[in-house]
Amino acid sequence: MAVVVVVFAALFGGAFGSFAGVVASRGLAPSLGGRSQCDSCARTLAWYELVPLVSFPALRGRCRTCRAGIGWRTYIWEVGGGVLAAAIALTVLLITGRAGS
Ligand SMILES: [Zn+2]
Hints:
It is a single chain. This protein is mainly alpha-helical. The chain has a domain at about 50-95. Helix content is about 55%, strand content about 0%. It has helices at about 1-25, 30, 55-60, 70-95. Helix 1 (about 1-25) packs antiparallel against helix 4 (about 70-95). The site of zinc ion (ZN) has 8 residues, from loops.
């Protein structure tokens, strides 16, 4: 059970970190408008291309259509958010004594 909680925390944190990265580079207003799309060919990304932490390595950091590189910077935010959220979840589990269950 603890593993599931930590994985979900990592994915949630990754999604949040990714969003924070986009806000940091583009500003808040453009980040809230519409779905994520490729910066190069403007194709709207499918859900499986937006899975936090997983999609970037799965796509080898490139757009599926135009093969343009997807920014490493956003992925660093994603990993940072994921690791942070996982660490928090793990700490909470350890403090409450639920890590072993
Ligand atoms: Zn593209």
